[in-house]
Amino acid sequence: MAPAHRSSARTRAVAAAAALGLAAGTVRARRRLAALPLLDPAGPFDTGLPPLAGWHLITAPGVTADETTLRAAVAHAAHEGLRVVDLIPARLDAESALGLLRLLDPAAHRADRGAPGHGAGHAVLVADEVHRRARLPGRLAEAPPRSAADLLRLLAELKEYAPDATGWAIAPGLAAPPPDPGRHAEELRARGLPPVLLSAGRLAGLALLLKCLYSAPRWGAAAAALYWLQPALVAAPARRLRPAGLARATAARPLRAVSTVLHTLRTPPAKAPGAADAPARRAAYAAELADGIDRFFEPRRIDCPWCSAPDPVVRVRMPDLLQGKPGRFTLEECRRCGHVFQNPRLTPDGLDFYYRDFYEGLGGEGAALILGRMNATYRARAELLRPFTTPRAWLDVGTAAGHFCNAARAVWPTTRFDGLDMGAGVHEAERRGWITAAYQGQFPDLADRLTGRYDTVSMHHYLEHTRDPFAELDAAGKVLAPGGHLLIELPDPEARIARLLGPHWLPWFQPQHQHLMPVGNLKQALVERGFTVLAEQHGAAHQANADFIGAVALTANRLAPDPHAPWATAPATPGRRAARSAVQALALPCYGAAAALDALRTAVARATDGGNAYRLLARKELG
C-alpha cells in the first residue's frame, strides 16, 4: 500500500475510533444520569419537625435551597439509608454535568466503599453523627467553604466517613450561580485531576477532530457532530437535568471549550501542600542534616539475621529513590537461605528520619491517593479466607489509615476489624468507622495486652518494614486464639523482574524495607511457631504497577529530584527546576509504554502464578 493510502486509512481508523468513543461516552453519561434520583418536592413530609432535624446542609457561596428541597432531601436520605447526600442543581450547566458524569457512576460508587467521593460542588447534606465524627462544627466555624472546590474536597472526605452510605440526588429547588471559568483549575485540582495535563489533552482532542474532519470527512463529521451535540444528547431528553442555556451551550461548545482551556492554562499553579510551613520545615531538616547521616546507620553485620550464615553478598545498592533524601543503602543476600536484608541497617532514629513526610505530613496526600486505589487488591486478600473460616475479630497490623479494613468490610460485613500501626493515621481510621479500635505503637510491645483476642491477624506489606520479623511473628502467635488464622503478603525477592530492573525495582523500597524473605524461609518460620500453611498465592498477589511504571517513576526521580523538597541539599535554582520539569515531560511517553508492559506482565503473572509478591494464609494449631 502506498504511504498516502496508509496515512488515509490510519486517519479514517482514528476518526472512526473517535466517533465510537464519543458515542460510547454519550450512552454512558445518559445511563449514569438516569441512575441519579430526582428529589420529590411533593412529599409526604413530617412538617412537625424543622426541615433539617438531625442533619446539616453545607453549601458553596451563592447556593440556596428552599424548605421543600430540604425536606425532600432529608426524606430521600432516610428512605435510602444515606448519611451523606450530594445535591445536584437541576439547572447545573451542561459542561459541569458532563464532567461530573464522566467521573461519577452513582450505582457503582454507592456500593463501592473505596470509591472516590465525586460531586457537583454545590451543596452537601450531612447527618449529625457524621458531621460530629468528621469534626466539622469547629472546622466550618473557623473556615466555611469559600468555593465549589472546597465543597468538592469536603465531599471526598465525607465519603470516607460514610463509605457505603453516600448518595447523590438531583434537587430541582437548589439555586446555584453560573460556573466561574477562572476557578476551573482549582476545581479540577479539588477532584484530584491535573489541570495543565487535562487542558493539553482537551486541546489535542479538538485538534484531532479538526484533522479527522479534513482528512476523513465521513467519520470526521460523525465524530465532530457527536462532540458538538453531546450536551443536548445527554441532557435534553432526560427530564432530570435542565441545564441553563442548553441550546446556547451546545451551539458554542467548541469555542467555550477553547476559552475554558485558555483560562485554565493561565491560572497560576497551586501552592504545594505544606507551603506555609516550608521555611520552618526546611530549617528543621537542615539542622538535622548538619550533624551528618552516619549516625542513622548501625554497624554492618557479617552474618545473616535470618539463619546466621556468614559472609552475605551484595544484592543491590541505591540512593533514596522514593523521596530523594541523602544517603546510600545496600541490600545484601544470604548465600545459604536467600534472605535479603538492609546492611548496614538503619537505627530507629534513621527510620524516623527517612519515614518522615512519606505517609503523613508532606507525603500524606500522595500516600492516601495510592492506598485508596487498591480496592480490588484489598478484597482479594479478604476473600482468601473464605474457604477456611468466617472471621469474627480481625486485627490488621500495619493498617496505616485502614484502607484494607474498609474494603474488607464489604466481604465480611459482620466481622469486627481493628487496626494497629505506628502512625497517627490509625486514629483517623477509627473516626471514619473503618476500624472499631485503634492501637498505635509497636506490635511486639502491644501483644501482651491483646493475647488471644483475635481469630484473624493480617500483615500486608508490613513484615518487610520491621526490624525483627521473628518478634512480629511471635506477637502474631500470641495475639491469635488457637485455631486462628494469619494472613501475610510480602514482596517476593525471588521474582526474576527484580534482577532485570536492579535498583529501580520498586519493591526494594529503600530505605524503608529492612527484610525481604523468600517464601520458603517464611513458611519454615511459621511451621516452627506452630502454624500450618493453608494457602500460598503468587500471581494473585502480584502488584500491578510496581514493576515498569515504578521503574520509570524511580528513574525520573533519580535523574531530577524535587528541588523544592525541604531536605534538598542544593538550592532550587531555575536550572534545577527546569531540569525536573523536562525530565517529567520526557517521562510521560515512557509511562505509557510502561503501563502496557505492566499490563502484559500482570496477565502473565496471573496465568503463571509468578508475580512480584506472595501471600500466605496459615492456621495456628490448637496444641
From TrEMBL:
Q: Which UniProt keywords apply?
A: Methyltransferase, Transferase
Molecular functions (GO terms): methyltransferase activity
Q: What class of enzyme is it?
A: transferase
Q: Which InterPro entries match?
A: SAM-dependent_MTases_sf
> So what EC number does this one have?
2.1.1.-
Biological processes annotated in GO: methylation
- This chain belongs to the protein called Class I SAM-dependent methyltransferase
